[in-house]
Amino acid sequence: MKRLLVVDFETTGSHPRQGDSIIQIGAVAIDDGQITDSFSTMINPGQVIPPFITQLTGITDEMVADAPSLEEVFPRFLRMLDGRTFVAHNASFDLQFLQEALLSQGYYAFDGYVLDTVELSRILLPMQNSYRLGELASELEIEHDNPHQADSDAMATAQLYLHLMDILESMPLVTIQRLQMLVSSFRSDIEVLLRQIEMEKLASLPELDDTVSPNVNEESSMWDIYRQLALRKRPEKLTASFQRPDFGSVDHKPFVDRLEDVIGDEGTMRTHVAGYQRRDAQEAMMHAVFQAMQEGSHLLVEAGTGTGKSLAYLLPGIIWAKDNQQQLVISTNTIQLQEQLLNKEIATLQQSLPFSFSASTLKGRGNYLCLRKLEQTLEEPVEGSSQELRLVKGQMLTWLTQTSTGDVEELSMPPSGHLFWQQVKSDTGSCLNRACPWFSRCFYFQAKERAREADVLIVNHALLISDLQAENRILPPYEVAIIDEAHHLEEAATQHLGKQFTTTQLLFLLDRASVDEGGVVPRLAEELQNWLPAISDVVTGQMTELKKLSSTLRDKAQQWTQLLYTWASERAEETTDAGRETVRYRIESFSGKHEKIRKNTKKLIDAMSSFAGYLDGLLRAAPADEKPTFAVRSLRTDLQGLVNEWQKVIELLHFFLQEHDPEYVYWMEVESRVGRKQVHLSAALLKVADSLAQPLFAQKHSLILTSATLTVKNSFSYIMSRFGLDQLPEERVKTLSLPSPFAYDKQGLLLIPADFPAPGKENDQIYLEAIIQGCLDVVLATKGRTLILFTSHSMLRIVYQALKERLADAPEAYTLFGHGIDSNNRSKLVRLFQSMERSVLFGTSSFWEGVDIPGDSLSSLVIVRLPFTPPNHPVYQGRADLLKAEGKNAFMSMALPQAIILFKQGVGRLIRHHLDRGVVVVMDTRVVESRYGRSFLQSLPSYQIESGPWPTLRERIEPFLSMQSLPDS
């Protein structure tokens, strides 16, 4: 495989046997790791090029009119291909066109080696977000000027291949050998390539006597090779890298003076941060945060966009922690925000502050890989396992040579990888602790050690809340914490103080307890008999009983799943934008003719309890005073973890379907758009305020809660009641509201059509037509550059499809990106939206916040409906019932404030910089017609607001956006 031809074809479609033809060939020759030749040509396909192909590739009928035919150029192309390996990105596509062209012109089919750079990239670049050629080229800084043109695609693929070869050639031999065992069933000939690399590595090894490991040279360099796995090498003395830096003597200067040393005209920030400017609101927040920590009070800060709140809480927080030799905990809403905070803001401060400090992140234990479990799964026979599972194992082998954290967030796995992760993730129930041979290399314990020693520890809300419940605290003891994106705290508490279970989870658990060959149960039985033949009869007896129960248990589980799915799907309604339909239930729902559900649940629980008894018998088969082998100890630990999980599932089945806890609201969800018959069961605490007030706010010295949206009509009272802060003495809770520094009255225009129909059902044609036409008008007036926010996925799909059809006739091409249609990955959609001219982005709930698109890429924002929680959502219904019982108006005291906070977040997507300019269109007439509508507008910054007939308003968009941008001040 030293001679290769990297090929890309542009075609009229994707079906060569149905008449689609090649319209451009790009080919790049590689010899001994060097690009030696290239060839590209347009081809006249003898047919009209479809418009969508022209839009994708830029190739028009005029461009190929005088081009040669395939018959004319094929001989030269085949001379280049002769004796070479065929390489392409998604090789099966290009290969089918090659084979069809060869057959149609009387040549033999190509029978040489084939390599697919998509497959290679997935294995060798397991931490990439995307494996599309354009995005790989961008990430790897490969020149790729004309995506979807064959010459540019072929050259970019050739450069990608050479990059992948560099990775392969630098890999340790043991990883290459293990990968070979996994790729034998892959579509392309990766196995042959790996064997070639292996032979070269073996040939380059010096001659060694039999007592020396063949990996000895590699082991002393960048790899830590242990138990036939290669890991990225870490510092020899683990504790040295975790040493808490010496803060030096405490600086007794007043806080205001120390602040001046950092952010003043002669301060260190000026030196280390290009373009740093002081901001009044930011400094006000810094003083308030430091004072709250000094006094031991809690502080709520609403800081508008552009305040610079990350620096405003980090700087005083770190200085206070330095003065008091305390650890500062920071909680963000998502793992992505954790990483951003560590790698951006914290990194900047580590350069800028006149003293050193360390920082680390910590996530839930299930985010970290268990090396012992991975080692075990890699020992399992590969025969019979799916290609996708082999790919995941291959990714993990490569990942071990690249990761220093073992954090699953780094991995880009196919769907089955997430199920496999459940087998290899770290967890308490199956941990050998210091008895584990991997303990000194354990990713989770290293993360815990880093967390314990760090001066600043960054966690997410999920972990912060889970720590309140854990018997053995997950986080190191702390007295001060900063909760960023604090408006999500109640939602995080609702989820993590609640309970969840799925029918898929049950079936997956049954698979893990399988008595078939290769599972943990039969493997333990075999190891026990090999270790202590004297207990062979006992082990055989337990296995016989387990085999008897196993098949009937799976039948009971599947019948129960079907019964539950049928009941739920007949009653469920759409209440989420995740493609699921929801039904609230009580235990009393399963009486009379539906009593069968409770009875079947009881039978399932009894069968699982019997099975667990025999699993426990297997665990206790050996005398306690016998010292087991490592294999027995390891498998026994895994089975004990499985039994613990089994017991938790039995408890959850009882909780969800056998008895009712009045403190919870219960509901089921079913997938409405996929064929999988699975049911998600959930329960949420009706009141989370009590669970936050005592263990969190009453116990801690000082908590700072901040967000761009904490107030409703300039009042913090709603958020304080939801967090239980109103249960504390008044003097313990302070508030501060800091407006955005942006000139919204000049930068933003908010339009409210007064002649639109009131929000109706999605099958109301008059309402739908008004929304579709309104969105079309905005998109055309702004030449794309539009984000359209929906509260329902079905509505998004309707408007997306309608706009796609109507924009197809526009003189200029528009590109639409729909969440859940073109991709489910928000970051990817935003990136594509920013990179394309005249593009439109359609989003639901996750796009209402956390999306940051500054500059000209986004000029208009459409809000189709006010973001009220669906009144039939179970959590809303349960809490509304509770409020009514307390004599309160559920709409005014919960639904309206929630909607206003989300509305503020949505509008906040538009103006992200002091030079930005944009138009917001709110198509929900309730904002001007209802009694409560004014509350939405009163909660916004000072936009220019205009309401009137839509034909008049839409004429305002283009002139407003074309006005001179504000000067940089």
UniProtKB/TrEMBL annotation:
One of its GO terms (biological process) is DNA replication. It holds the Pfam family DEAD_2. Keywords: 4Fe-4S, ATP-binding, DNA damage, DNA repair, DNA-binding, Exonuclease, Helicase, Hydrolase, Iron, Iron-sulfur, Isomerase, Metal-binding, Nuclease, Nucleotide-binding. One of its GO terms (molecular function) is DNA-directed DNA polymerase activity. A motif (DEAH box) lies at residues 484-487. It is an enzyme of class 3 (hydrolase). It comes from the Bacteria. Its EC number is 3.1.-.-. InterPro entries: ATP-dep_Helicase_C (IPR006555), DEAD/DEAH_box_helicase_dom (IPR011545), DinG (IPR006310), DinG/Rad3-like (IPR045028), DnaQ (IPR006054), Helic_SF1/SF2_ATP-bd_DinG/Rad3 (IPR014013), Helicase-like_DEXD_c2 (IPR006554), P-loop_NTPase (IPR027417). Residues 268-531 form the Helicase ATP-binding domain. PROSITE patterns: HELICASE_ATP_BIND_2. ATP binds at residues 303-310. NCBIfam families: dinG_rel (TIGR01407), dnaq (TIGR00573), PRK08074.1 (NF005981). Belongs to the helicase family. DinG subfamily. Type 2 sub-subfamily. 3'-5' exonuclease. This is 3'-5' exonuclease DinG. It comes from Brevibacillus reuszeri. The gene is dinG.
